[in-house]
Request: fold
Amino acid sequence: MILIFLGAPGSGKGTQSELISKEFSIPQISTGDILRNEVALATDLGMEAKTYMDKGELVPDDIIIKIIENRIKEKDTKKGFILDGFPRTIKQAEALDTMLQNNNLSISKVILIDVADEEIIRRLGDRRVCPNCNAVYNITYNPPKQSGTCDKCGGKLIQRNDDKEEVIVKRLSTYKENTQPLIGYYEKTKRLTVIPGDMDIKSIFNNILDELLYIP
Ligand code: AMP
Reply:
């Protein structure tokens, strides 16, 4: 099973990919998490990526495509994988098609989580993350048991640099300009499913599970 989660930043695609990853025991591949880990390790790649991430811009396609090419060759992807935050441009989508075709693979489903802009802005402002284990919380809808502390690993929760108000607006416009055209791209393949993202986490998860029953 090869799944793509599409959606604006803050749509809940990371949360849902994690749940689906556990349900089907296939890895969640989040380019955002991979890049943040590189930033935390202060690698050359991380330092370069940070200059784009902090401004709410996309990291150049060739860098991201290489990351994915290497990642999907790893052993744990044999049963399938979930792409969370990739592709984000038509060029990335085309590169993915080529990678998959070369390995006789194809995309099972593209799941678009649809959330209105005002809700996105509110959610991103309320988002807190654990830099240690990448867990994601929302201080209103999905708060940790103890304020400021990760339920899973006890790490100290932070607000991502790019979740600050001035960057959120830029990230939304980057999404509209570069990533929204992928909706049309994947509609043509008849593999696109739109899931309303304005419900609670469990209901969205159940709706996605229902959709996954119908993979041809
Ligand atoms: P995310 O956690 O998915 O919101 O990603 C955080 C940031 O990482 C984005 O705002 C981009 O700067 C960068 N990034 C993540 N995935 C990609 C991608 N597929 N293409 C380009 N930049 C990306």
Summary: The two ends are 11 Å apart (CA to CA). The mean pLDDT is 94. The beta strands are 2-7, 28-30, 81-84, 109-114, 127-129, 136-138, 192-196.
